[in-house]
Specification:
445 residues, alpha/beta, TIM Barrel, eight-stranded parallel β-barrel, binds 5-hydroxymethyl-3,4-dihydroxypiperidine
């Protein structure tokens, strides 16, 4: 097995090059034109929840500046643009009346993307639940799963004539654990029992939304989900105990997500913690999907021995996340190996990127560490493709520096620098580099 690509590796024809953003992180306009309150509005307006008490009220003001951002993405030679719809912008209370002004915003955004030659990849839920639905229990309440399916159908009815690619959820793991078990994200609960129910309900909502979206589609659409899967690796690969522990970690994660989604079964023990589960739920969850989105930032390392932090000689990002590109290939090939016999759809790497401290000096943001992060990870995607894995696209996270949830604005993931005072955008050197890769559809070393 080669661990380097040839000096000039050409990606498959029609390979998708894009970036990702999410509504709450970039749009701002938190209460404009009839938008309802979201759980992130409520959470970030509560003192002490977000670093420096920052919030997404203005963010990158993309609600008003989307045309400029789309033009920047076009100039970066990208051919796809991943973004999310803010549910409370289009349906303020999450049930009942839709908000025409909010829906019109996404009409204009989609039209601008298509004019720029950028394929829209829409995510229906990237964490900003209408607060009114939180008030009835949020994702612990099965009723919310049905409401999500209704909302999904409405969005497909409205935009399905122009948008082919639809993702139900971004990173359900984060909603479950960061939001309901550890209190780090909205709605800020610390309740393991609730979290177990949420893990299940999110998958149920995914299944119900797939069914509803397909029924609503006037034209062929492609449906998927985006998971933040990580590969668990032993600290000491020569130590059998560490290897066993890593394998158990991988199987546990699969038991929560890939097994139910792709095989219609939960892994051992998962259902023990779920209070409410109906006999038909797993069949609903196990809907045929057209793609699986994988968000990869870092691996997880396990050992029976204490794990040094940081691991000697390894690089870490501003988030404290280890930079370890080879695990991306391992993750992609492992999914392919373990699920080829199931219904494994094509794969996109839907997020990958790094936060580093950036400085704008004389109109230039020189960010060699991010550039190197992107280059080494894109190389691993190329290697996975060479291994035979059906990876059809790569989306860098993120187009813009933006509101990084509980960390506020102090963590910059963008390939475009944003001055949050003036809202001026500057393409970083990593962005210029990615533009060359996308134009050539190849990685040259
Ligand atoms: O910014 C987030 C994004 O919203 C979801 N995936 C991880 C990113 C970096 O933390």
């Amino acid at each position: 097995m080669n661990d380097r690509l040839p000096a000039n590796f050409v990606f498959p024809r029609d390979f998708v090059w894009g970036t990702g953003t999410s509504a709450y992180q970039v749009e701002g306009a938190w209460n404009a034109d009839g938008k309802g309150e979201s759980i992130w509005d409520r959470f970030s307006h509560t003192p002490g929840k977000v670093a420096s008490d920052e919030n997404g009220d203005v963010a990158c003001n993309q609600y008003h500046r989307f045309a400029e951002d789309i033009e920047l993405a076009r100039k970066l030679n990208l051919n796809a643009y991943r973004f999310s719809i803010a549910w409370p912008r289009v349906q303020p209370g999450g049930r009942g009346a839709f908000n025409e002004a909010g829906m019109d915003f996404y009409d204009r955004k989609i039209d601008a993307l298509l004019r720029a030659g950028l394929e829209p990849y829409i995510t229906l839920y990237h964490w900003d639940l209408p607060q009114e639905l939180q008030d009835i229990g949020g994702w612990t309440n099965r009723e919310v799963c049905k409401l999500f399916a209704d909302y999904a159908a409405k969005m497909v009815e409205r935009y399905g004539d122009r948008v082919k690619f639809w993702t139900t959820f971004n990173e359900p793991w984060c909603t479950t654990f960061l939001g309901y078990a550890w209190g780090i994200h909205a709605p800020g609960l610390k309740d393991d029992k609730a979290a177990a129910q949420v893990a299940h309900n999110l998958l149920l909502a995914h299944g119900l939304a797939c069914i509803a979206a397909r029924a609503a589609a006037q034209q062929a659409i492609e449906l998927g989900i985006v998971l933040n899967l990580t590969i668990t690796e032993p600290l000491h690969p020569q130590n059998d105990e560490d290897v066993k522990k890593a394998e158990a970690g991988w199987r546990r994660d699969c038991g929560y997500y890939l097994d139910p989604l792709l095989r219609g079964v939960y892994g051992p023990g998962v259902t023990d913690d779920i209070a409410e589960i109906e006999p038909e739920d797993l069949a609903i969850i196990n809907q045929p999907m057209d793609y699986l989105g994988i968000n990869y930032y870092m691996r997880s390392v396990v050992s029976n021995a204490p794990i040094p932090s940081p691991i000697d000689g390894h690089e870490y990002t501003q988030m404290g996340w280890e930079v370890y590109a080879p695990a991306l290939r391992t993750l992609l090939t492992r999914i392919d190996k373990d699920y080829r016999d199931a219904y494994l759809p094509k794969i996109y790497v839907t997020e990958n990127g790094a936060a580093f401290e950036d400085k704008l000096v004389d109109g230039v943001v020189d960010d060699p560490r991010r550039l190197n992060y992107l280059a080494t990870h894109i190389e691993q995607v190329g290697l996975a493709i060479a291994d035979g894995v059906d990876v059809q696209g790569y989306f860098a996270w993120s187009l813009l520096d933006n509101f990084e949830w509980a960390e506020g604005y102090a963590r910059r993931f963008g390939i475009i620098y944003v001055d949050f005072e003036s809202q001026e955008r500057t393409v970083k050197n990593s962005g210029k580099w990615l533009a060359q890769v996308a134009a050539a559809n190849s990685l040259q070393r």
